[in-house]
Amino acid sequence: MKRVNSIYRHPLYQKKYNTLQKAEEHRRFCNHTLEHFLDVARLMYIYSMEHELSISKEVIYATAFMHDIGRIDQIEKNIPHEKAGAALCDIILPDCGFTKDEIGMIKEFIIHHRTKDTESYQPLYQMLYWADKKSRNCFACAMQAECNWNKEKMNLEIDY
Ligand SMILES: [Fe+2]
Q1: Quick check: pTM over 0.90?
Q2: How far is the CA of 54 from the centre of ligand 1 (A)?
Protein backbone atom coordinates (compact mmCIF):
# COMPACT_ATOMS: atom_id res chain seq x y z
CA MET A 1 0.00 0.00 0.00
CA LYS A 2 3.01 2.24 -0.60
CA ARG A 3 1.19 4.44 -3.11
CA VAL A 4 -1.77 4.95 -0.73
CA ASN A 5 0.57 6.02 2.06
CA SER A 6 2.15 8.47 -0.40
CA ILE A 7 -1.25 10.09 -0.95
CA TYR A 8 -1.80 10.59 2.76
CA ARG A 9 1.70 12.04 3.18
CA HIS A 10 1.59 14.23 0.07
CA PRO A 11 2.14 17.91 1.10
CA LEU A 12 -0.88 19.15 -0.89
CA TYR A 13 -3.07 16.36 0.53
CA GLN A 14 -1.95 17.21 4.07
CA LYS A 15 -2.63 20.90 3.47
CA LYS A 16 -6.16 20.25 2.15
CA TYR A 17 -6.87 17.63 4.84
CA ASN A 18 -5.76 19.81 7.75
CA THR A 19 -7.64 22.86 6.46
CA LEU A 20 -10.76 20.73 6.07
CA GLN A 21 -10.48 19.38 9.64
CA LYS A 22 -10.25 22.96 10.94
CA ALA A 23 -13.20 24.10 8.85
CA GLU A 24 -15.36 21.22 10.13
CA GLU A 25 -14.22 21.41 13.74
CA HIS A 26 -17.61 22.57 14.99
CA ARG A 27 -19.77 20.82 12.39
CA ARG A 28 -22.58 18.91 14.09
CA PHE A 29 -23.32 16.63 11.12
CA CYS A 30 -21.01 13.96 9.65
CA ASN A 31 -17.38 15.05 9.31
CA HIS A 32 -14.89 14.07 6.63
CA THR A 33 -12.04 12.62 8.60
CA LEU A 34 -9.41 9.95 8.16
CA GLU A 35 -11.83 7.53 9.86
CA HIS A 36 -14.48 8.24 7.21
CA PHE A 37 -11.97 7.70 4.39
CA LEU A 38 -10.83 4.39 5.89
CA ASP A 39 -14.42 3.24 6.51
CA VAL A 40 -15.25 4.00 2.87
CA ALA A 41 -12.11 2.20 1.65
CA ARG A 42 -12.90 -0.93 3.64
CA LEU A 43 -16.56 -0.93 2.58
CA MET A 44 -15.55 -0.50 -1.07
CA TYR A 45 -13.22 -3.45 -0.66
CA ILE A 46 -16.07 -5.58 0.74
CA TYR A 47 -18.29 -4.45 -2.15
CA SER A 48 -15.63 -5.33 -4.73
CA MET A 49 -15.32 -8.83 -3.28
CA GLU A 50 -19.08 -9.41 -2.99
CA HIS A 51 -19.58 -8.28 -6.61
CA GLU A 52 -16.40 -10.02 -7.82
CA LEU A 53 -15.01 -6.82 -9.32
CA SER A 54 -11.35 -6.97 -10.17
CA ILE A 55 -10.15 -3.61 -8.95
CA SER A 56 -6.85 -3.28 -7.16
CA LYS A 57 -6.84 -2.56 -3.44
CA GLU A 58 -4.65 0.50 -4.00
CA VAL A 59 -7.10 1.98 -6.53
CA ILE A 60 -9.93 1.39 -4.03
CA TYR A 61 -8.08 3.03 -1.16
CA ALA A 62 -6.88 5.92 -3.36
CA THR A 63 -10.48 6.55 -4.41
CA ALA A 64 -11.68 6.56 -0.81
CA PHE A 65 -8.89 8.89 0.32
CA MET A 66 -9.51 11.34 -2.53
CA HIS A 67 -13.33 11.31 -2.72
CA ASP A 68 -14.06 14.03 -0.13
CA ILE A 69 -10.75 15.90 0.00
CA GLY A 70 -12.28 18.52 -2.34
CA ARG A 71 -14.78 19.51 0.35
CA ILE A 72 -12.45 22.25 1.51
CA ASP A 73 -12.69 23.85 -1.95
CA GLN A 74 -16.46 23.55 -1.73
CA ILE A 75 -16.43 25.35 1.63
CA GLU A 76 -13.91 28.03 0.60
CA LYS A 77 -14.61 28.51 -3.12
CA ASN A 78 -18.05 26.96 -3.69
CA ILE A 79 -16.62 24.38 -6.13
CA PRO A 80 -18.66 21.12 -6.00
CA HIS A 81 -16.44 18.74 -4.03
CA GLU A 82 -16.55 15.92 -6.59
CA LYS A 83 -15.11 18.31 -9.21
CA ALA A 84 -12.52 19.75 -6.84
CA GLY A 85 -11.54 16.21 -5.79
CA ALA A 86 -11.13 15.05 -9.38
CA ALA A 87 -8.91 18.07 -10.12
CA LEU A 88 -6.76 17.26 -7.07
CA CYS A 89 -6.35 13.69 -8.38
CA ASP A 90 -4.57 15.11 -11.43
CA ILE A 91 -2.04 16.89 -9.21
CA ILE A 92 -1.53 14.42 -6.36
CA LEU A 93 -1.87 10.94 -7.89
CA PRO A 94 0.88 11.16 -10.57
CA ASP A 95 3.32 12.12 -7.77
CA CYS A 96 2.30 8.93 -5.91
CA GLY A 97 2.95 6.61 -8.85
CA PHE A 98 -0.59 6.01 -10.15
CA THR A 99 -0.89 5.43 -13.89
CA LYS A 100 -2.97 7.50 -16.28
CA ASP A 101 -5.54 4.69 -16.56
CA GLU A 102 -5.80 4.29 -12.79
CA ILE A 103 -6.22 8.05 -12.31
CA GLY A 104 -8.92 8.07 -14.98
CA MET A 105 -10.84 5.32 -13.15
CA ILE A 106 -10.46 6.99 -9.74
CA LYS A 107 -11.73 10.30 -11.16
CA GLU A 108 -14.76 8.54 -12.71
CA PHE A 109 -15.67 7.07 -9.31
CA ILE A 110 -15.29 10.45 -7.60
CA ILE A 111 -17.18 12.47 -10.22
CA HIS A 112 -20.20 10.11 -9.95
CA HIS A 113 -20.13 9.48 -6.21
CA ARG A 114 -23.01 11.80 -5.34
CA THR A 115 -25.47 10.22 -7.77
CA LYS A 116 -27.41 7.04 -7.34
CA ASP A 117 -28.39 5.96 -10.84
CA THR A 118 -28.98 2.25 -10.95
CA GLU A 119 -30.28 2.43 -14.55
CA SER A 120 -27.08 3.51 -16.21
CA TYR A 121 -24.30 2.53 -13.82
CA GLN A 122 -22.67 -0.84 -13.49
CA PRO A 123 -21.82 -2.14 -9.99
CA LEU A 124 -18.43 -0.55 -10.56
CA TYR A 125 -19.88 2.95 -10.48
CA GLN A 126 -22.19 2.25 -7.56
CA MET A 127 -19.35 1.10 -5.35
CA LEU A 128 -18.25 4.49 -4.00
CA TYR A 129 -21.81 5.84 -3.68
CA TRP A 130 -22.81 2.74 -1.69
CA ALA A 131 -19.72 2.70 0.54
CA ASP A 132 -19.98 6.44 1.23
CA LYS A 133 -23.57 6.06 2.46
CA LYS A 134 -22.99 2.78 4.31
CA SER A 135 -20.09 4.30 6.25
CA ARG A 136 -22.39 6.51 8.32
CA ASN A 137 -23.86 5.24 11.59
CA CYS A 138 -27.22 7.00 11.28
CA PHE A 139 -28.89 4.50 13.63
CA ALA A 140 -26.83 5.93 16.50
CA CYS A 141 -26.63 9.58 15.39
CA ALA A 142 -27.95 12.37 17.61
CA MET A 143 -28.43 14.59 14.53
CA GLN A 144 -30.70 12.14 12.71
CA ALA A 145 -33.85 14.28 13.03
CA GLU A 146 -32.10 17.37 11.63
CA CYS A 147 -30.15 15.59 8.87
CA ASN A 148 -31.07 16.36 5.27
CA TRP A 149 -30.56 12.74 4.15
CA ASN A 150 -33.83 11.02 3.31
CA LYS A 151 -34.69 7.79 5.11
CA GLU A 152 -33.66 5.72 2.08
CA LYS A 153 -30.08 7.01 2.30
CA MET A 154 -29.82 6.56 6.08
CA ASN A 155 -28.43 3.46 7.75
CA LEU A 156 -31.07 2.72 10.31
CA GLU A 157 -29.89 -0.86 10.88
CA ILE A 158 -26.46 -2.42 11.25
CA ASP A 159 -25.92 -4.55 8.16
CA TYR A 160 -22.24 -4.01 7.22
FE1 LIG B 1 -17.80 10.67 1.85
Answers
A1: yes
A2: 22
